Amino acid sequence: MVKMKISFILNGRPAEGEAVPAQTAVSFLRDSMDQRSVKEGCGIGECGACTIIVNGLAVTSCLMTAAQLDGATVETTEGLAKSGNLHPLQESFIQHNAIQCGYCTPGALMSAKALLAENPEPTRREIRKALAGNLCRCTGYQQIVDAVEDAAKAMRGKTDGEGCR
Amino acid sequence: MNDNDAQFIGKNALHPRVVEKALGAPIFAADLGDGNQLVLKARRAGVHHAEIVSIDTREAEAVPGVVRIFTSADIPGRNAVGIIGNNKDWPILAVGKVRSKADAVALVAAETEAAADAAVKAIRIEWKELPAVLDPEAALLPDAPKIHESGNLLYTRLIKKGDVEAGFAASCHILENEYETPMIEHCYIETEAGIGYFDEDGIMTIEVATQNTHYDQADICAVLDVPEEQLRVVQAVTGGGFGGKLDISVHGFIGLALLHLRRPVRYFYTREESFLASGKRHGMKLKLKTGVDRNGKLLAVQGRVLSDGGAYGSYGIAVVTRTGVHLTGPYECPNVDVEVREIYTNHPFCCAMRGFGTPQGALAHESQMDMHGQALGLDPIEIRLRNALVNGSEQATGQIIHASAGLTDCLKALRPYYDEAMSVWMKEKPGRPSRKRGVGVGAMWYGCGNTAAANPAAAHIEIDQNGQLTLYSGAADIGQGSTITLLQIAAEVLGVEPAKFKSVIADTKYTENAGASSASRQTYISGNATLQAATLMADALLERAGDQLQSPKEDLALAGGKVTLKSNPAVGLPLAQLAGSMHTLGLPMKFRGYFDPDTTPLDPKTGQGCPYGTYAFACQLVQLEVDVLTGEIDIHRVVAAHDVGRMINPANLVGQVCGGVAMGLGYGILEEFAPGVESLKDYHICTSTDVPEIVPILVETPEPTGPFGAKGIGEPSLIPTAPAAVNALEMAIGERIYALPATLERVMEACQKAGWFEKLEV
Amino acid sequence: MREHIRYYRPQSVAEAVALLREHSGKSAIINGGTDVLIDVRSGKFTGDCLVDISRIQEIKGVREHDGAIIVGAGVTIEELATSRILQEKLPALALTGINFAGRQIRNVATIGGNVAHASPSGDTQTGLTVYDAVGLVASSEGERTIPVCEMFKGANKSALNDTDLLLHFIIRPCAAKYQHFEKIGRRKDLAISRASLAVLIDQDSDGTINFARVSLGACKPSTGRMPRTEDFLLGKNPRLSVFREAAKSMSAEMIAITGRRKSLAYKEPAIEGLLLRMLIPLL
Hints:
The complex is a heterotrimer.
Chain A: E1 4-10, E2 13-19, H1 25-32, E3 51-54, E4 57-60, E5 73-75, H2 88-95, H3 105-118, H4 124-130, H5 142-155
Parallel strand pairs in A: 1-5
Antiparallel strand pairs in A: 1-2, 3-4, 3-5
Helix pairs in contact in A: 2-5
Chain B: H1 18-23, E1 38-44, E2 50-56, H2 58-61, E3 66-70, E4 97-98, E5 104-110, H3 113-122, E6 124-129, H4 136-139, E7 153-161, H5 164-169, E8 173-181, E9 193-198, E10 204-208, H6 213-224, E11 231-235, H7 251-261, E12 265-268, H8 271-277, E13 283-292, E14 298-308, H9 316-325, E15 335-343, H10 358-376, H11 380-387, H12 407-423, E16 435-447, E17 457-463, E18 469-473, H13 482-494, E19 502-505, H14 522-549, E20 556-559, E21 562-565, E22 572-574, H15 575-584, E23 590-595, E24 615-627, E25 633-643, H16 650-669, E26 693-699, H17 721-733, H18 744-754, H19 756-759
Chain C: E1 6-8, H1 13-22, E2 27-30, H2 36-42, E3 49-52, E4 62-65, E5 68-72, H3 77-82, H4 84-89, H5 91-94, H6 103-106, H7 111-116, H8 123-130, E6 134-139, E7 142-147, E8 152-154, E9 157-158, E10 165-171, E11 178-185, E12 193-203, E13 209-217, E14 224-225, H9 227-233, H10 240-258, H11 264-279
Helix pairs in contact in C: 9-10, 10-11
């Protein structure tokens, strides 16, 4: 078995690891890079629990090889909070009770972050569409949509103070 | 206490572990351990029904990295588990024969995932295939192959009251219909997972995704033939349960490997293995005959139900009992004759799933109720109001519901939404001519707690000498938020913010049995146990403060982390100081609360008795559009009115309602565990675009025996949704669907029957 | 088992083509990975090397050239759905990307992969075939063009060789006023098509249909145009009764290809309904 050196930017910092090239990105990130927020929920790109952001785009890391991370800019939920401060999305997920069991949460946070980067003012419909690839069995999605909507407001720096609920 | 007095009840508070979850911290079973654990993997039968002629593990043992291969011969104790005490019918590793494709025949322990996979494939099993029994009706034929020695009929539940024949004779409108509901998958996003290790005291420990650590401990101890003090079960943060993590999954394998190998191990089901090996919701065939008088009042209910239990009993006996008890729907009916039978087949085993046999019955009784209403010209809310169980009503098992019968309030809360939907929304023109609109109502009732059986919970509250309070509860929090609910109850009594408590949850080493996190029971039952523990603690603190302040207890209050004089809140003693003096004086500092709802067994012949301490009620409204040319469904809105007794944590309640509605919609229109379903590719749950905006309405009808008046919500939220959707489809299409789920195929068939392709106008 | 799988990341078409020749019979091309890695997981992939073409710039992008639209095989489904050029010039193709899987998959799955895997439910194929798209394929023998409708030998069977690399699709825009695509899935997103239909219709000033193309996906072994249905529509005046007949004619045309199968109980009325629904705006 030939391992390959994977050099990439992980959550803003240069990172390096060794991987079996055809290994999935999710297993490489979890086992070699200690990114255990990245969950394998199905292994076939249907549940979104393994969602990470690669070069600005949300992707399912179970359908990506470790080798494809080489040279890429990668974001995981581990990188969301900065110097002990929660990211507005994390804050909003907590405040809106968007987290029940929490297993889909990191993936949903990644999809939401990628959405807000390209569309800072999404409608509820657009939020639902962007998160359709993140299955959640607990919440019925409503409080997640609330959370993303409110985080978008916060991130635009013009909270209207009324929140959603 | 009225609402205005409450400090923490009825307010939102954050779950103690929510920040870790938001950070993506490594807290789930699959995240735990150091990566040096042995990997476990079961070899599963892959055939429905067969005798095991031989198992040859030699080739598998030779795979590099394989440490050991176990078969049933390695099980020192009772090789049978099952939650219902007298029906332990499920071997950890098969003995002599297999009864379903999922049956584990051997267990591999290996150094790596790859070695475990290779070894599993290298195990040679010689089978003598037996005829498979895949239909519950066929399973009852006299010459059907026996799946278990005891025969294929596992259990029959009868509920008999009054005289149904007389009831039908007096009825002016009688309906008799057959309904069918599918097996479905729980589909928690976290698959089954656990690790095994020896804890700091050298005790074998299984840390696992579970809904009931104390049951796990008892059954695995029996399997391993070790006393309970030698096996600890700890609940790992659990990624959803919905009833599917009540049964033994990885636990037995982990225990077996720990016992023999004395090394840390792990087992994580792939999604494919989870689909194969996990329990399902019972598929049922229901015949329901109901009669109403000219006012729409239910006079007789006669039901015959066959439930496909799959290969092993699990909760099946309790599931069909609940189906029977609830088959009248949340309505008064003087004459009842119900028979529900639980059948073994070679399907995957069926187990508890959100609603526990009630959702299946609800499809039938709510469809019937709508049809009676239509026949008599009563709208769906009116006919339900006329029949609703109210305080003082006697239900089918003869129990009088004394209080908190909240269906009427829920129906009244739904009324304006229904009227608006009918008078405004139904009158609007849909976006395209092929879309037709429908509005449907569904109602339900649900007994909180195990059915007609003792189901106690204990809880402890401790204060240390520095005043730190800790809640000890065996109630597994699987994401529904039971821990914060219990903390809010304790907080209210003790006047200390929930966030200031520590909590130790679902760890057999430190917590006492609280029973399963199932049956919508923890708020009601562990809530009461916590309330009692907190009250005893409060009493001790007030007593101590009374001595120090030289004031009678009655004149003191607990608030803001202090005991203060009611007459002068400025005078007070911090809990830390009181705890310090209690410690010095050697006074008790840990208090135990206990609650077991007041129930009686059901008579085996008539089903008469008091099955539950209290009932939750709900009704929901579904508005949808159907494309009558293609059968596609677009859910527009769901309004969900739920009687929760008293709100403890509104955001959690809303979360349960929305989550239940989403799962209920899946049950209604998407989900079916059918042959060939192997993964999430073939099994569709609702995505965020399938679920509409939901309007949750929380109705309060305080339950006198509930903690602060609270009842359960977990399951009730799912139960009315599918029937409401089916009723809405009937309005939209003009034809009724009697089998779940209302797939494209079934909806199309109904549309064809209604002749939409030919009659559509533009 | 992934340990034995070798991995190549060519930077150019020439390099990729050479690798494919060298590893013929045991390699798979991977770009987005959303099909190949599922096969690797399930064990269906039995080869020993992956040729990752995701970094080859030559196969990316949508551009106009000589009156045609050139869509790179490496164009992702999300790019397909959001490309201004495609939305304007080939709307029925752009629409195939809207309800394709979830966003994470759309971000990496490519039109080339969707075609090359020849899934009978591949939505892009419906959009490509309705425009009579032609694929440009490179191999060690050189480049050649193949009409997309000839790229499928049957369900999941591509007519491409394992040494072939799809470079891009060449598509002539169509002047038809009505260009549309719809699919039926079991749910709104993340749903494999039960049926998909692309329709191009143009009418005379009096409404007479003077141009009709219909392509049906997910209902027969290979996606493609339905000539009898198109012929039926030509010269007709839009009326509901005519469209009902057109719909019936299309289901008959499908059954003539597939024979009577169990899944037709749904598909037959559903494609009739789908076509009728898509034609109604022309009334």
